[in-house]
Amino acid sequence: MRAYSAIGLLYLQGDYVDMPDEDIAKCAAVFDRAALVALPRPMRERYAEKMSHALASGAKMMLITLEYDQRLFAAPPFAISKTWDINPRWSAAALYHYTGEAVQSTLDDYHLLDLSVNRRLANHWRIALSADNVFEEDYYTAVGFPCPGVGIRLGLNYALH
């Protein structure tokens, strides 16, 4: 593990899995630029479990993730969402977003839930129905610019592979 310090801050860089819980508990903030999306699902679950148990209450975390149809590209970086294959033709997905209060910002935290269902029509064709912000959360991603309420999308997709 490497440690760097500047302006009264201590930065730790290393293998998170091998880091002792007591060192993680001392962290007031965590920045995950690419660790979670690089891990396959079983390792992501262990990572999230360790993070939830080791971080102190009130610690802040910035997590960068990706969202896309994982069936189109089955290698890292991995999409972070939950998809259920109902049968060979039908699937459903849920994506939960939580954005905490930004540091030095007047924006409030918010929770969003997006849901979708997909049906395979033919070899390369899929139809999808999606509902974004299903609980109609009032939220802002920039001061003075409110985001839309519930959004419904219907799409027809063709995969080139």
Class by alpha and beta content? mainly beta
How many domains is the backbone divided into?
2
Counting DSSP E segments of at least 2 residues, the number of strands comes to 11
- What is the topology, as strand order, of the major beta sheet? 5-6-7-8-11
- Number of contiguous helices: 3
* Distance between the ends: 42 Å
How much is the radius of gyration in Å? 19 Å
Provide the low-confidence segments as ranges. Answer: none
Largest sheet: 5 strands, antiparallel
Question: What integer is the average pLDDT?
Answer: 81
Helix/strand order, N-terminal first: EEHEHHEEEEEEEE
Q: Can you tell me the overall shape?
A: globular
Can you walk through the features of this model?
By secondary structure, this protein is mainly beta. It has 2 domains: 1-69, no CATH class; 81-161. 14% of the residues lie in helices and 40% in strands. A 5-stranded antiparallel beta sheet has the order 5-6-7-8-11, with no helix packed on it. It has a two-stranded antiparallel ribbon with strand order 1-2. It has a two-stranded parallel ribbon with strand order 3-4. The longest helix is centred in the first third of the chain and has 14 residues, at 41-54. The relative contact order is 0.11.
List keywords for this structure.
161 residues; 5-stranded antiparallel sheet; globular; thiopurine S-methyltransferase activity; S-adenosyl-L-methionine; TPMT; receptor; TonB-dependent receptor
